[in-house]
Write a structure and sequence with these properties.
The protein is α/β, with parallel strands linked by helices. 36% of the residues lie in helices and 16% in strands. The protein folds into two domains: 287 residues, Crotonobetainyl-coa:carnitine coa-transferase, domain 1 (Rossmann fold), CATH 3.40.50.10540; 62 residues, formyl-coa transferase, domain 3 (2-Layer Sandwich), CATH 3.30.1540.10. It is elongated.
Length: 416
């Protein structure tokens, strides 16, 4: 079997997933929508990714790095794109043409879920918005992801992860106290939005199974980012006090942060007073645990600055691994700060299957390494049926499978 065949053939040894029989029409791109549909694909759904002819998902070109092809040359497939698009089949259709829009409408009739992240109202002119499709297909679950949601004064504004992190407040909490507001390095607003979308779709599928009724799901990046403010947001709502940036420190627990040992940094995450007493014993400072200013977490919060200074001085005399070993034996939570090389080479990652290798037709090796799904089911394990598809790789296969004789002639000039 050649490289192309390896990359495009479904692995028939994979057990059926929990969502087998559910078909998802994926009109989304970038990260929030693709992260959602990748998760549904991991759970067994048949995800059909509809892309722009000739260009595909914007993230295909978001590199370097790119997949390395023959003769060591980079391809047009970025690592960014690979991260959120396994377990999908790719179809290219130009929805800006009447023929293309009609093809997607016909495809939708054979699908359980449609997900899109166009600008609010952007699909209406193609007859692909929820208001156009749901009256004729009331069992369809239609999920719209946008920056600010479908309603409100900002609904018309575009939404990107950085904008959501800024508007939703997380950047005001992240970073060093005297530094500038800082975004989270990974596009976490997009990713968590995708997770919310996936759980919403699963709930809507359950409702449809009971009632036969589909619905429109409206999810905004900013809304979901505000939702995961969690304890910091609740702290503000209860107290009325504006939180400040604390770098790696915790707003409610001390000591719970990064410290510098003699040969590197480590995390110390003391979660209760017993653990604090144990930690003071480890660093040969038992008097700190007996001091009424530091004996309770509330006292440690009140006297954070002076306590941290004392701890930093003591911790600096220990090596990182020496301290971590002692903490583990005494039940005090903590850990190293790994580089990504250390992460993916660790025995824990290998044991948990968090690094996977999947087929890819443009890679010189025929495969690409990716991050695995973190969920472990005892009866229905995650199945990696497809590697991230090349743009339009499954167009003919999918259109024949879904539409057969209903297919429309799409061999027209591409205008998008």
């Amino acid at each position: 079997m050649n490289k192309q065949e390896r990359a495009t053939t479904r692995d028939e040894s994979i057990l059926p997933g929990m969502l087998e029989g559910v078909r998802v029409l994926d009109l989304s791109r970038i990260l929030a929508g693709p992260a959602c549909t990748q998760l549904l694909g991991d759970y067994g759904a048949d995800v059909i990714k509809v892309e722009r002819s000739g260009r595909g998902d914007d993230t295909r070109s978001w590199g370097p790095p790119y997949v390395v092809g023959d003769e060591g040359l980079p391809t047009g497939e970025s690592a960014y794109y690979l991260s959120a698009n396994r377990n999908k089949r790719s179809v290219t259709v130009d929805i800006s043409t009447p023929e293309g829009a009609e093809t997607v409408r016909k495809m939708a009739r054979h699908c359980d879920v449609l997900i899109e992240n166009f600008k609010v109202g952007g699909l209406k002119k193609y007859g692909l918005d929820a208001e156009s499709l749901l009256p004729n297909q009331p069992e369809l679950i239609y999920c719209s992801i946008s920056g600010f949601g479908q309603t409100g004064p900002n609904a018309h504004l575009p939404g990107y992860d950085l904008i959501a992190q800024g508007y939703g407040g997380i950047m005001s909490l992240n970073g060093e106290p005297e530094g500038e507001p800082m975004k989270v390095a990974v596009a976490v607003a997009d990713i968590v939005c995708g997770l919310y979308a996936a759980t919403a779709i699963l709930a809507a599928l359950h409702h449809r199974d009971r009632t036969g009724e589909g619905q429109h799901i409206d999810i905004g990046l900013v809304d979901t980012q505000i939702a995961w403010l969690m304890n910091e947001g609740s702290n503000y709502l209860v107290s009325g006090e504006r939180p400040v940036r604390r770098g790696n420190q915790h707003p409610n627990i001390v000591p719970y942060q990064v410290f510098k040992a003699s040969d590197g940094h480590l995390i110390i995450a003391v979660g209760n007073d017993h653990q604090f007493r144990q930690f003071c014993h480890i660093i040969d400072r038992p008097a700190l645990a007996a001091d009424p200013r530091y004996a309770s977490n509330s006292g440690r919060l009140d006297h954070r600055v002076e306590l941290i200074g004392l701890l930093e001085s003591a911790i600096a005399s220990f090596s990182r691994d020496e301290l971590l070993s002692a903490m583990e034996s005494h039940g005090v939570p903590g850990g190293p700060i790994n580089t990504l090389a250390e992460v993916f080479e660790s025995d824990q990652v290998k044991a948990r299957g968090m690094k996977i290798t999947l087929p890819h037709s443009q890679s010189s090796s025929g495969t690409v390494d990716l991050i695995g799904n973190p969920v472990k089911f005892s009866k229905t394990p995650i199945g990696y049926r497809y590697g991230p598809p090349c743009c339009g790789e499954h167009t003919e296969e999918v259109l024949e499978e879904l539409l057969g004789d209903e297919q429309i002639n799409l061999d027209k000039p591409v205008t998008d």
